[in-house]
Amino acid sequence: MDIRKNPYRADFPLLASHPEIAFLDSAATAQRPACVLDAQRRFYETMNANPLRGLYSLSVAATAAIADVRAQVATLIGAPGARDVIFTRNTSESLNLVAKSFSPCVLGPGDEVAITIMEHHSNLIPWQEACRAAGARLVYLYPEKDGTLTDAEIAEKIGPRTKIVSAAHVSNVMGCELPARKLADAAHAVGAVMVVDAAQSVPHLRVNVDELGADFLAFSGHKAMGPMGVGVLWGRHDLLEQMPPMLTGGEMIDSVREQDATWAPVPEKFEAGTQDAAGIYATGAALSYLTETVGLDAVAAREGELVAYAMERLSELGFIDLIGPADAARHHGVISFNVRGVHPHDVASILDASGVCIRAGHHCAQPLLAWLGVENLACCRASLAFYNDKNDVDRLVDGLTQVWGIFHGSD
Ligand code: PMP
Predict the structure, then answer these.
(1) Which of 106, 112, 119, 188 is most buried as measured by Cβ atoms within 10 A of its Cβ?
(2) For all residues of the chain together, what is the average pLDDT?
(3) What is the pLDDT of residues 360-379, one digit of tens each?
């Protein structure tokens, strides 16, 4: 895997037509290959009709297209049944659906929900709200400073009061994988359910709900090169059956009378109103591109080399404080850091002037940055995808050298 060559960049119209851009913010949202943009257009040109709302062939084609992507998602995550895959708008909505609809089924006063301090706000605030509503307690698992969650911490925090454990599969700040399986085993041992936030793992790793021990799993299409506005929630069928809908209205009912209604089966019960059918169809094209055209092994191999190269170059600079594991092999695309003595917003703005796109701020993980003691509750994050190359990393390093020169040139 030669990271000096880039066989993928030409597939992405934005990158192909903007050689000046070094896009290092794929953890926030990925770039889209032409095949995804084409698919979105193809939907509107060849099968545009409201799915489920007609018996004519266009509508039937639109309905079938969505069913195909549901099956494709199920295969991608090793889910036993395609109809337990629910389309939402994003990971945030998927996690809210579990917190709002499932929590009341199991959570009561004195019970506990366990999450880690590494969670994105999307996997944190919904649990704050659910615990508040139920009179339950939100318990945090704290890792070592390098992101490692110890067995002792898991054993101490997951106990008889725990009803739900929810954790990221990969941290969007530390970049490392969390021990989802161990967390799931601990959850199941006390009769709790395991929720996995796979927003940062689906684009990089093989994800299998069975191997992870997940009872619910959420991710966003847009981080895996699909259009913005399509998310997934997979859930264990018996749990989905138990849950009331979060949203009500069109297409989610079985029958409606003046004073009450009954619900459609899963997944329609959770999919009120018209969905982004073109977006779902194009998400299917994105997942095909990721898993078939590129292939997850190639993704892992290339991103592994890119991250290793980037971390080596960053460590040579001598003024970078890394956040997360020192071992590059533990980073899945994400490298967070600070330039000593320089506010991350200044770093990002200066890099932007030379076309290098990184993210700076709290990365929707304020409690994590507070716990790590990160100054200003802010850091820089460079996140890599297989469509990056050595040149992108070199440009990041050159830009950071320039930043250091601007702020410390006269030191
Ligand atoms: N969880 C994690 C780990 C994330 O990285 C993100 C996106 N940064 C989210 C949840 C939320 O994803 P979305 O904005 O698509 O809802």
Answers:
(1) 119
(2) 97
(3) 999 999 999 999 999 999 99
What SS3 class is residue 388? coil
Ligand 1 centre to CA of 88 (Å) is 13
The ipTM value here is 0.99
Residue 410 has pLDDT above 60, yes or no: no
Quick: pLDDT tens for 47-71.
Answer: 999 987 678 999 999 999 999 999 9
Q: What is the residue with the minimal CA distance to atom 6 of ligand 1?
A: 199
Peptide bond into 267 cis (omega under 30): yes
Distance 248 CA to ligand 1 centre (A): 24
Which residues form the pocket of ligand 1, taking CB atoms under 6 Å from any ligand atom? 28, 90-92, 120, 122-123, 168, 172, 197, 199-200, 220, 364
Residues designated as active site: 364
pTM over 0.95: yes
d(CA 201, CA 296): 11
Coil/strand/helix, residue 160: coil
Instruction: Among 98, 127, 364, 368, name the best residue to mutate to test ligand 1's pocket (greatest count of ligand atoms within 8 A of Cβ).
Output: 364
Least Cα distance to 73 among 221, 257, 189, 180 occurs for: 221
Q: Which atom from ligand 1 is nearest to the alpha carbon of 172? A: 5
Q: What is the pLDDT of residue 411?
A: 56
Tokens of 89: 């708008």
3-state class (DSSP) for residue 98: helix
Alpha carbon distance 105, 99 (integer Å): 10
Q: Is 306 helix (H, G, I), strand (E, B) or coil?
A: helix
pLDDT at 1: 75
